[in-house]
Amino acid sequence: MSTSPHIVEVSRDQFPSLVLQESHNRPVLVDFWADWCQPCQMLIPILSKLAEEYAGGFLLAKVNTDQEQELAMEYGVRSLPTVMLFRDGEVADQFMGVQPESAVRELLERHLPGPESDALRAGREALEQGDAHTAVEQFEAARRARPEKEEIKIEQARALLQLGRADEAEALVKSLPMDLHQREDVKRIESELHFARAAGDPQEWPALEARLEQDPDDPEALHRLGAVRLLQGDPAGGLELLMRLMKKHRRYGDDAGHKGLLAAFELLGAHHPLVNEYRRKMMALLF
Q1: How far apart are CA 137 and CA 123, in angstroms?
Q2: Which ranges of the chain have pLDDT less than 50?
Q3: Per-residue model confidence (pLDDT) at position 110
Q4: pLDDT, position 1
Q5: pLDDT tens by residue, 131-182
Q6: Torsion of CA 148, 153, 156, 157, to 10 degrees
Q7: Which of 62, 109, 196, 275 is the most exposed place for a label (fewest CB within 10 A)?
Q8: Class of domain 7-111
Q9: Which candidate, 58, 60, 59, 64, places its Cα nearest to that of 11?
């Protein structure tokens, strides 16, 4: 076991905090290895040397795959060693097999803080404090500093959505490279955009509420208010309205209820307690 503060051994229970959460602060390099793996033993000194050299610029997290087989399977590890670099809770880069020190160093340099880091940090802090205006400005500054770093657009799009500037957020998301569209956070933003378009003008929402009270099966009210509920943090209310829309009006909006439920599942994430319940209900209607 290493005594270095820059190297940690990680279990499945520790992975969310030591890897996913920490990767929002700095890159985390995760080494999936095993005692019996000779190439792993050849790579370990290289990774350890770099962890000490960078002195906290990144965290080296070691996962013993013999002890953490489920974690290795979850991340699709098929050969050893496999090394993944996490940024902002996602796998940002990876390699398999023994690599020369120069190649590992090149990978790290692509992800270590650059001239945009101060603006990014300020934007994230502003967003956490509810100041989306400042966040948008800081993310824009970060993009000017590193225009080739496409990931910054994701954070700026999230801030724009909080301001209700869905068209600008959508333009940023559409300009992302195709590989970034596979990221879970991008899929969630795309789902939010889906519901922002469906919800429409907030000034019309009170009238829609009145219509729904008069007619609980009004398709437009079900659709738009289902989107409103989800955007306002009421997933149970939103899912229930979309489920009713799917039950009563399959032809409305080209099966808008079904499409809305699928978008809601993306927005909430697979582990949300309501997702499995409503996925079962949706499948029962389909079959």
Answers
A1: 8
A2: none
A3: 84
A4: 57
A5: 999 999 999 999 998 888 888 999 999 999 999 899 999 999 999 999 889 8
A6: 170
A7: 109
A8: alpha beta
A9: 64
Looking at 40, 47, 83, 166, which residue is catalytic? 40
CATH 3.40.30.10 location in the chain = 7-111
Distance CA 219, CA 157 (A): 30
Model pLDDT for residues 1-17, shown as the tens digit of each residue: 568 899 999 999 999 99
In the CATH hierarchy, which fold is given to the domain comprising 117-180? 1.25.40
Q: Do 60 and 51 contact (CB within 8 A), yes or no?
A: yes
Determine the topology of domain 198-286 in CATH: 1.25.40
The alpha helices in 200-234, defined as continuous H runs, are 205-214, 219-231
Share of the chain above pLDDT 90, in %: 83
Catalytic annotation on 195? no
Mean pLDDT, the chain, integer: 94
Number of H helices, E strands in the chain: 14, 5
Bridge partners of 28, per DSSP, are 59, 86
Of how many residues is the chain composed? 287
pTM of the prediction?
0.63
d(CA 135, CA 126): 5
Portions of the chain given CATH number 1.25.40.10 = 117-180
**Catalytic residue check, 69:** no
CA 228 vs CA 195, 201, 206: distances in Å = 7, 10, 11
